[in-house]
Amino acid sequence: MEEGGKTQPMLFERDSSYVSYRAAGNQRFGPYQLDELIVYYRCPGCKKEMRPSFARFCMGFASLDEFRRAAVNLFERASRRSGCEHCGQEAKEQLLKRRSYFFHFSYFKKKDFIIEVRRTSGRIFCRYALMDDQGVIEHLTREQIAGADVYFDPGMAEFRQGYAELTFHSRLEDARVHLSRALYLHPVFPEAELELARLSLACGKPGEADEHLEQAERMGTSDLLSRLLRAEIFIAEGAFVKAQSICRDILIKYPEEADGFYLRGMAYLNEGKKNLAARDFKQAISLDSAHARSIKALHELGIELPEESVLHRLKKPHPIDDA
Ligand SMILES: [Zn+2]
Asked: Which sign, positive or negative, has the C-alpha torsion 131, 134, 137, 138?
């Protein structure tokens, strides 16, 4: 299937906007890309294919069987809230579910693992493929995947579950259990140390966060993530001038980093410099229109948002629904 290399035509049918989303990374949801589900329907009235539904998740799978079960389950559960956009057909329960694609980012391979689920004559069929960051698709047989189990990793599964618990559900104790297991399975796992540092901050323990951050730096971690966390720790410790200084360094090197503006804004805010803080929050939102923490901070300052619609943008992975 690989012959033809990069010019190999893609057999999976995809929405072109999806590719740019994936290639640009998923800044909305932090540094770790999430799973995405795309479901296609056909209208029973006009027989046209309808606009697909999207949903995002952060899941971890330790085996191909788990992954397949989850993909089939998501396909079965998926539904649309609105009727057909072509003919106005309202009978949502009669919409024919055609197929779904479930994309799971294989962290260690830096590729998306894709499962296509279809129902034909009442039976479920699955196909598998890999997609790299250029959008090049390589189809795999079930046997080929089974022989490459590095795509499914128990330590990575624990990590993603811990990340989701901390980031999307604020279930801090569950997050700690998963992240600790991830580190047990992969003792050199700087990302897990960084998440433990974020967890410690969420628990109001900046000293503990500092220890995890140092551990992550010893293992070798991203310069940007590590500096952003350092700034957050300074803020939690009340060292606002140090936080501002580290944010200035971040913004010299990464001038489009919304979190850098947000954190500097928080440091200003804590010193009572509301105007400077508001300017930084607005800057963060201009770089990332869904920057939830900046939107919240501006709102609390009683300042009009640059754009009303940002409040309605999604800030979390959402349940299966229309795009
Ligand atoms: Zn229709």
From this structure: negative
Domain boundaries, the chain: 12-152, 154-221, 236-314
Q: How far is the CA of 165 from the centre of ligand 1 (A)?
A: 39
For residue 297, count other CB atoms closer than 10 A to its CB. 21
How far, in Å, from the CA of 87 to the mean position of ligand 1? 4
Distance from residue 321's CA to the centre of ligand 1 (Å): 18
Say which CATH class 154-221 falls into: mainly alpha
Whether 321 shows a pLDDT value over 80: the answer reads no
SS3 62: coil
Identify the three-state secondary structure at position 39: strand
Query: What number of other Cβ atoms are within 10 A of residue 276's Cβ?
Result: 16
Mark residue 47 as left, alpha or beta (left: phi above 0; alpha: psi -120 to 50; beta: remaining): left
Taking the centre of ligand 1 as the mean of its atom positions, its distance from the CA of residue 40, in whole angstroms, is 13
SS3 assignment, position 42: strand
Distance 52 CA to ligand 1 centre (A): 13
CA 188, 194, 198 angle in degrees (round to 5)?
150
Cα of 232 vs its chain's centroid, Å: 21
Q: Which residues pair with 139 in a beta bridge?
A: 129
Single pTM value for the model: 0.71
For residue 121, the CA-to-ligand 1 centroid distance in Å is: 22
Burial track 212-245 (b if 16+ CB lie within 10 A, e otherwise): bbebbbeeebeeebbbbbbbbbbbbeebbebbbe
Range scoring the smallest mean pLDDT among 58-62, 89-93, 159-163: 89-93
Q: Which fold has domain 236-314?
A: 1.25.40
